[in-house]
Amino acid sequence: MPDIVLLGLNHKTAPVELRECLAFSSDETVAASDILRKEPGIRELMLYSTCNRIEFLMVTDRRDEVVGAAKRFIADFHGIAVPQFDRALYINTGDEAVRHVFRVASSLDSMMVGEPQILGQIKEAYFTATRQKTSGVILNRLLHRAFFVAKRVRTETGIGDHAVSISYAAIELGRKIFGSLEGKKALLIGAGEMAELAVEHLLRQKAGEILVANRTFENAVALADRFGGKAIAFEEITGALEQVDIIVSSTGSSKPIITRDQVRGRIRRRRNRPLFFIDIAVPRDIDPRINRLTNTYVYDIDDLKGVVEENIEERNREAVKAERIVDEAVVHFRRWLDSLDVTPTIVALREKVQRIAAAEIEKTLKGMGHLDEKDRRAITRMQEATVNKILHDPTIFLKRNGCHGDNAVYLDVVRKLFRLDERSEN
Amino acid sequence: MHYLLITVTICYLLSSAGYFAYLFVQHRTLYRVALGCIAAGALLHTVMIVAAFAGSGYFPARNLQQTLSLAAWAVACSFVALQLRLQLKVLGVFAAPLAAVAMLAASHLPGGAVANEPVLRGFWLTFHVVAIFLGEAALALAAGAGVLYLLQEHAIKAKKMGFFFKRLPSLDLLDATGYSCIVAGFTLLTVGLVVGLVYAKMVWGRFWSWDPKEVWTGITWLLYAALLHERLVVGWRGRRAAIMAIVGFGALLFTFLGVNLFLSGHHGDFTKW
Fold first, then answer.
1. What ipTM, to 2 d.p.?
2. Does chain B have fewer CB atoms within 10 Å around its N or its C terminus?
3. Interface probe, candidates B27, B149, B163, B172, chain A, greatest A C-beta count within 10 A
């Protein structure tokens, strides 16, 4: 029986300094698989490297040998001694390796549980492996199952729901207020990574014009150019409150930039259209009492952090459901893997042919009442001999490991050709 | 006829259960089943009303049982119509139980005594009743949307992303739904009232007779007129509009039931039991 071995390290076991030393770029991945596939013990191989993990997924008959070879390979490729990374490595085999792959693809092993990129990265790595023909019947099945599990996890649990970054949480809130953000005008006051990220999210949601205000007008012009918006003077902010719908503020000012009275005077002129303030600054730019005005909503950085924390808790709760889906899939995969063992396949094949022949003989004999017991026995013997002769060559072939190389392929084909998995699968 | 009444009631009850289950579990099948139930109920209910109309020659709004049943029918019909235009599924939590409760009350009332005056026959009277009931049902839905709006707004203002925040749609959709319902409801109500006034002139020789129901309907109508006027002129929306929609519905309920139970007048006959 071939063994599935997974060897790797991730954000939990290795610090970023080590991960960047050991990472493979996509070209390096191709080169690495080309070298490693020549290792005699490795039957199938796939390797993936993202910023949070580097993992080697292998199918082999000689586990320990292959693990050693993989470690040596990593050391040689990156010019780093094995003891330097050995402690960060985890080595999973059998069901544990299968579970690990399923969990990674479903984003349960990610730094931010539920983040969607990892599935794409695994798919990419798998397509590289298929192009290079380093994957075989077992990895193909394993990865297709992994994609299926990931999809199930995504649709059946809320693991990917709700924003887990401050800026995206703000955008999600905006959608709960405005419905669609399409065409909504935004005003960015000040600058800063989080605030700019929020504006980028807004643009991606097809927001309307972006106004930019800054104490230094030059900076405002530069940012406005970047977002394809319009720079306004700091003094124009009060007037702008009449047109914009969303205000993102992030200045270093020690006093509030927008006061309650400033907003109150504009509400009627805005014909009560809602206003949404996102205050990312510390100390705060927006007077919190503005939140009490009608159709006006203020979220400061702590409020947004609170939303994000709640969302993360929610995701962790959903992860429990996801683990159950993964466990189920591991059991199914194990069943399939066992079926690739030679003996059960031969037994199942024999049973099936025997059953068909016996049923046909019985049908025929029913209509031949003139035959005596001896004739009947002779016909039955003939049927058994025929079955044995038909199955002789295939049995020998399967037992001798298909003459060369990968038995799993032939076992899989036989099972499909004779539909031996009708009951256990699907 | 009684079997039909029970079947319709069961449809509305099932739909209510479906919508509540949908509120908690958020599974699409539940919502589809619930919508199917209320739509089937509304269809059967229409058959029932038409049959009663054809059987007696009077439009079946002549005692409290029939009036309540008609109110439930109007709520169910206007909700199904709203679902075809705006996808505010969660409003079913309000509409289906409303229809179910009205039907339950109707099925527990005796159906015997009816007002039998020739004045109560004819196309214009039927038109008057149907327009007003549908209009009132739309205004009831507006109040439902208003309640949902207040819940969602509270969640956002208080920064408590709890049960309702996740399940309710955006404030904008809730507000827009409430507004559409009020426009539709107010229009129907106005048309129904005008027809009623004209009909009163035809049969009694006067437009307005200070009947309590007339007075209260006038008050309710003014309330909604004020709400719409403010919306059009200064853009009243959101919280205040939602509260007004709920207050308006309170006045409407009193006009519909309270007046008949506590005060008397020429509309009182239709709610005898």
1. 0.83
2. N
3. B172
